[in-house]
NAD(P)-binding domain-containing protein
Amino acid sequence: MNRAMRIRRASLLGLASALALLLLPVPRAHASAPEKAVSRTVKPRKIGIIGTGKIGGALARLWVKAGYEVLISSRHPEELKPLAEQLGPKARVGTPREAAAYGDVVLISVPYGALPQIGRDHAKQLSGKVVLETGNPYPQRDGPLAEEARLKGTGQTSKALLPGVRLVRAFNAISAVDLSNQSGREGTLVGIPIASDDEEALKIASELVKAAGFEPVVVGGLERAKDFDVGTPVYTRLLTAEELRKHLGLPQ
């Protein structure tokens, strides 16, 4: 083989090698990097609202706006039809019993003196459900029961009045006006204290607090609900979550 042929053969072999390299799979630049977490949208829950007054009505508006379906109720459900029409197709009207049966989660927002009857009348429908309860006891309105709750704490008192539910004390330490006006405010959100003996119920309640445009602050079990009862230093004060934790002696 002469010199020219050897050079040509070498050139062809080099070209073949280059082409083979080009056909090899190119490694991904970020193959070893962890994949970004996929954001998950919480599946909207159905919420039954027993007592659609100022607090219940405000939360109905906020939750419908966030994409939840609600059934609003009162002792006179016909009076709630205008509100349901304003809220649109995600809202319907019913009796308290229907609200208790309808909701995956139930909000009870009634005068504290009405709580014993709610517990008796709708025990079957409420059994095993996460129940957010907002009532505050006032002796001049609710009688001896309110005096007992003030002494014992609403967490423990409400637990006895609503047996069989996964109770969360929530939205009792904010006024109805602030609930409407401070939702999703610019800057740092207002903190909402919540308490329950059920960890999963606290997670669900936290989800609903966030959906309403506030920052949940888990205070502890129902025994600690008295720390944000009516008359306490944090009651109806517009505090951030950080400020609320500081006032309640919670870790930051």
